[in-house]
Amino acid sequence: MSGPQQVNLTDLDLAQLADVRKQLDEELTHLTSSFQQLKAVQAKFRNCIECVRELKGGQSKPVLVPLTNSLYVPGKITDAESVIVDVGTGYYVKKTLPQATAHYNAKITYLNTNISALEEAIAKKQENMDPSST
Amino acid sequence: MSLQTKLQNVTQEFQKLQADMAKAVEARERLGTQLSENELVKTEFEKLEPLNDVYKLIGPVLVKQDQAEAKTNVNTRLDFIKGEIKRVEAQIKDIETKSELKKAEYIAAQTAFEQQQSQQVSP
């Protein structure tokens, strides 16, 4: 299979142009959806950091633990210094509060690199779609 | 075997190769995801201090694991995935070669068939 060729858009006939536009549209939709997914995951991690912050200084604080959607039992926090964090593939690690915060911050930074790469790709595709808008 | 039947057979075989290729590529992608996830866990484990307990999710239960055992498990899994990736990549290469040969066969069969058609029309 030959590599990507540079085709002048003015050389293509109407049917081919429509095809190219459709393909660009699909790619744009796919990239945008991936972008939104990454942003959602980032928001979840930020939420985790917020929860960890709230836990601080909560030793022996009374809590309500949900058994079902409408059934709670009272309990007490026995260990407000550590949390158990999901690290992937079914493994969970007990970390101290600062370790957990650092872990989530690292994940957020890692996602940021992917997100900026996606943003660049999306901007380029949009430019291809509609060069008059630049 | 008539040329038409031969053409149909070659087309079918080619399509089957395409389907096999799609499956193999999907498997390679899945393995790639598993590989990165396990490498993430491995880096995480390397940062572990003795006070960090490791738990494994078995059903709805978190079961405490021995740190050394968990590390060994992840490494074994990583090696297994790498082996699988090599195997699937070899499979993909193999299907690619067969595909190219089948394509050449198809073009030859089609040309022969078209020639026969034109000879029948204008003897």
Structure description:
The complex is a heterodimer of chains A (134) and B (123). By secondary structure, chain A is α+β, with helices and mostly antiparallel strands. In chain A, 56% of the residues lie in helices and 19% in strands. With 123 residues, chain B is mainly alpha-helical. In chain B, 80% of the residues lie in helices and 8% in strands. Chain B has helices spanning 3-46, 67-121; strands spanning 54-58, 61-65. The radius of gyration of chain B is 26 Å and the shape is rod-shaped. The two termini of chain B are 22 Å apart. In chain B, 7% of the residues are buried. Classes of the chains: A alpha+beta (134), B mainly alpha (123). At the A-B interface, strand 3 and strand 4 of A face helix 1, strand 1 and helix 2 of B. Strand 4 (91-96) of chain A pairs antiparallel with strand 1 of chain B, so a sheet runs across the interface.
Strand content of chain A: 15-25%
C-alpha geometry of chain B: rod-shaped
User: How far do the termini of chain B sit from each other?
Assistant: 22 Å
Sum up the overall morphology of chain A in one term.
elongated
